[in-house]
Amino acid sequence: MSQLITTELLGEHPLLSSISTAEDLSTAWIRSGDGLIGFGVYKELEVTGDARFNTARKWWDEAIANFSIKNNVHGVGTGPILFTSFAFDEGQPSKLIIPKIVIGQKNGKSWITWIGDSNQPEITQLKNSVVSGEIKWDTGSISEANWRDQVATAIKSINDGDLEKVVLARDLTAKSNKEINARNLLKRLEIEYPSTWLFLVDGLIGATPELLVRLNKSLVTSRVLAGTIRKSGDEDRDLTLAASLAKSSKDLEEHEYAVRSVADALAPFCSSTNVPESPFVLHLSNVMHLATDVTGVLNDSAKPTDIFTLISELHPSAAVCGTPTKKAKDLIKELEGMNRGRYAGPVGWIDIHGDGEIAIALRCGQISKDKNEIKIYAGCGVVAGSDPAKEFAESQAKLMPMRTALETM
Q1: What sign does the dihedral 173-382-228-324 (CA atoms) show?
Q2: Could you count the other beta carbons within 10 Å of the beta carbon of residue 250?
Q3: I want to staple 229 with a disulfide (CB 3.0 to 4.6 A). Which of 41, 245, 361, 405 is the partner?
Q4: pTM score > 0.70 for this model?
């Protein structure tokens, strides 16, 4: 028997600030106030293995086939939505969630989608948020000294000609004497980092500046970030730092590897691609990145390419793994000494037409099942010109968005 899916227009509501339902907040995807938030779980699936993207596609297609859809709004992101969060490594579990209720907003228009033959779910004003607890930080899986040694070992491998670039990550754990409130955390991240993509899927929560792939009909977009410098807090000084970043041979080399890996992955599926000759400097609250927006138009073939195919081809990019990919992954497994989980994996949403937005899960953390602990992550691209002390300082800067949000939410 098919499940009824209904989508109706809804009065405008700030997504994180005022909306609540009888179901708990389960998923979120927001940027500059627009996006999608999900409540409850209609269906979920955990997948592992080399075929995880194909398994996810098949599961979503089967779910869609059993839906009877009544969509009075139409457009990208309306109707039933699949939220995805894939692990960095194929051997670790990835998560797929179809929420019971999805509320969306774009360009001043809001809508609600719900599953079942009942009337529209009641939307209530959000009550005062739960008071946050005291946060205490523990050491991560890797000490500072050991992590610097790992970077030095990676630099030696690069100079020996084994590979060109590798991304090494580290983590920190925070414990709270009260449950960590995901909505409060997202609200703090939205205030500080409005231009990033905020996400929540099965406890993985963050504010990432890097878009792996957006598919809107046949137009493909990927925002590549690689090359980072920490802000000083002084506007004039930061302009000087931005100029130095744009001219840094080390950072430009790192960025070139990342852009090349994305452009090469998209090329077989696109009739045309556009890769800007030089990156721009993306300014965030705490750091600046070299950034390039790669775009393309999908081939008009008898067998259209879908977003699952693009994800599988693009992940892992050089921005989160290295170059060549296999050698970089092998070195990560040898050196890193921790489980990345879904950090640095593809995260986002997909609609019934196959359109969607998938980012790379950066500037994020994994909330524990009891919600009293969160593990946050950061990584740095290591190339021949890298310096272990500077890479550690960069990782500290990349941990700051989650650290600050946790301490002030």
Answers
A1: negative
A2: 15
A3: 245
A4: yes
Structural domains of the chain ordered from first start = 3-116+135-408 (3.60.120.10)
Task: Name the average pLDDT for the chain.
Answer: 93
Contact of 224 with 258, CB cutoff 8 Å: yes
Report which of 358, 359, 356 is spatially closest to residue 79, judged by C-alpha positions. Answer: 356
Q: For the segment 140-156, what is each residue's pLDDT rounded down to a tens digit?
A: 899 999 999 999 999 99
Partners of 169 in the β-ladder: 379
First to last CA, the chain: 44
Q: Burial level of 50, CB count in 10 A (0-12/13-18/19+)?
A: exposed
Q: Which residues contact 88 (CB under 8 A, 6 or more apart)?
A: 316, 320, 340, 341, 342, 343, 344, 345
Q: Is the pLDDT of residue 71 over 90?
A: yes
Angle at 401 between CA 400 and CA 407, to 5 degrees: 80
- pLDDT score at 154: 97
What is the C-alpha R_g of the chain? 21
The token duo for 218 is: 């046949």
SS3 sequence of the chain: CCEEEEEEEECCCCCCCCEECCCCEEEEEEECCEEEEEECCCEEEEECCCCHHHHHHHHHHHHHHCEEEEECCCCCCCCCEEEEECCCCCCCCEEEEECCEEEEEECCEEEEEEECCCCCCCCEECCCCCCCCCEEEECCCCCHHHHHHHHHHHHHHHHCCCCCEEEEEEEEEEEECCCCCHHHHHHHHHHHCCCCEEEEECCEEEEECCEEEEEECCEEEEEEEEEEEECCCCHHHHHHHHHHHHHCHHHHHHHHHHHHHHHHHHHHHEEEEECCCCCEEEECCCEEEEEEEEEEEECCCCCCCCHHHHHHHHCCCCCCCEECHHHHHHHHHHHCCCCCCCCCCEEEEEECCCCEEEEECCCEEEECCCCCEEEEEEEEEECCCCCHHHHHHHHHHHHHHHHHHHHHC
**Phi, psi (degrees; rounded to nearest 5) at 129:** -65, 155
- The b-or-e profile of 93-110 (16+ CB within 10 A means b, else e) is ebbbbbbbbbbbbeeeeb
Angle of helix 307-314 versus helix 52-65 axis, rounded to 10: 170
pLDDT of 72 > 60? The answer is: yes
